[in-house]
Amino acid sequence: MKKHKPIKIIGILLGSILAVVLIVAGILLLMLNGRIKNLQQLDEEGYLYYAEYEGEYDNPLISAPCRLIQNSGCSAFLAKEEDGRIFTGRNYDLSHADSEGNPSGLNVVLRLNPKGKYRSINVADAAWITYLGLPYYKGALSDDKVTKLPLAFLPYLCMDGINEKGLSVSILALDVKEGERAVSQNVKGKKKILYEELLRILLDECASVDEAVNKAEEYNISNILGRDYHLFVSDADGKSVVLEWRYEELQVTYTDAATNFYVGFDDADASYQKELSKAQSEKEISPAYRFGYGHGYDRFLTIAEGLEKHRGEEGTAVMDKEELRLLLEQTTQAFHPEELTSLTQYHALYCNTDRTLEIYPCPSYDQKFTFSLEK
User: Fold this and answer.
1) d(CA 357, CA 336)
2) What is the dihedral of CA 258, 264, 265, 269, to 10 degrees?
């Protein structure tokens, strides 16, 4: 796996340059438009918090910090229970570390109620604020060591979420292949936005996968500091899709699983091709799954094998919640300081039909917190 220490250093330097401008301008704006309320620590260690956002956040100053987001090595999949309830499983992996190099993280379950848009429950990675020069590590929000005003940036630091219509969206990192350029669409007449902005738009405005696909086609997508991502989108009807951008075009792939490689292409690195073909044969994994350039194949094969073992007549895997949770545990990543896409921050189980979130924060994942949106 690639080493990312230079990228971290560049991110910190850029963050230092932007910090004063963003924080000062952002605080002035946020005092007028939006603020965080009901902030509370959930787990014992201080990795996970809950907050509600009051006010509007549709402003470029609030979305600006999402330009600092680095790679995240994640997993996502869709399955259902015997009773027909649809679930989206999600691991969020990213090797945040504190100033002493110890594994850390700071995630916030964020409830949004934007005027004229869909309500949603999201999970935001508040540790990204560290790149603005603030020590946003575990437990930081439980004392007065750091200002809490930058938390108003959280609507655009959400890594996944579900809205009141049962649409769930998760963001996962991709690798840019040597010789290719990170996406930067420039179709005339379309607004240019970042991946994180699109995630926010889909959760705020779309009720189904079909609506999400149509909405994504309305925008030009731009990379974040030379990095690309794709979005795993699912809905209450059991439909799931991956939206990814390559060669300056949107690729839509209907699939029930994704990690950190392109799922709409077949150009995995040659060193993996033989291994992937063998795994598909031995584990009887559907040949419909494609393996494009990137990483996370081992996690994907684990997920695919689990789904195949429980594949129902209609094509969707049928599993109980304990089996879903086990599949998330099997794709957990340990902390490796030099690998930015390591360290699972949390397991999340979104119930698309019930509009709920069950979240299990690191490091032990034995604490569960449940949140619900009324239908």
Assistant:
1) 28
2) -10
SS3 199: helix
Q: Six-digit token pair at 372? A: 């619900």
Neighbour tally for 31: CB within 10 Å: 12
Whether the CA torsion 167, 173, 178, 184 is positive or negative: it is positive
| Backbone region of residue 257 per phi and psi (left: phi > 0; alpha: psi in -120 to 50; beta: other values) | beta
pLDDT interval class at 160 (50, 70, 90):
very high
Exposed (0-12), middle (13-18) or buried (19+): which is 176, by Cβ within 10 Å?
middle
Please give the Cα distance from 293 to 295 (Å, whole number). Answer: 7
> What value does the mean pLDDT of the chain take?
89
pLDDT tens track for 10-58: 555 555 555 555 555 555 555 445 588 999 999 999 999 999 998 888 8
| Residue 80, strand partner residues | 86, 318
Tally the C-alpha atoms within 13 A of residue 287's C-alpha that lie toward its C-beta: 2
pTM for the full predicted model: 0.90
Structure tokens at 283: 């584990």
Beta bridge partner(s), residue 125: 107
Distance CA 24, CA 48 (A): 26
The residue among 286, 368, 279, 287 whose CA lies nearest residue 322 is 368
pLDDT in tens, 178-199: 999 999 999 999 999 999 999 9
Supply the pLDDT for residue 149: 85
Contact residues for 362 (Cβ-Cβ < 8 A; gap 6+): 47, 103, 105, 343, 344, 345, 346
What type of residue sits at position 212?
A: A
State the Cα–Cα distance between residues 342 and 334, nearest whole angstrom. Answer: 6
The percent helix, strand, coil of the chain (3-state, each to 5) is 30, 30, 40
The H-assigned helical ranges of 255-343 are 270-282, 297-309, 321-330
The alpha carbon of 117 is separated from its chain's Cα centroid by a whole number of angstroms, namely 21
186 and 141 Cβ atoms separated by less than 8 Å: no
Give pLDDT, residue 231.
98
Over residues 250-305, the pLDDT tens digits come to 999 999 999 999 999 999 998 888 888 888 888 778 888 999 999 999 999 999 99
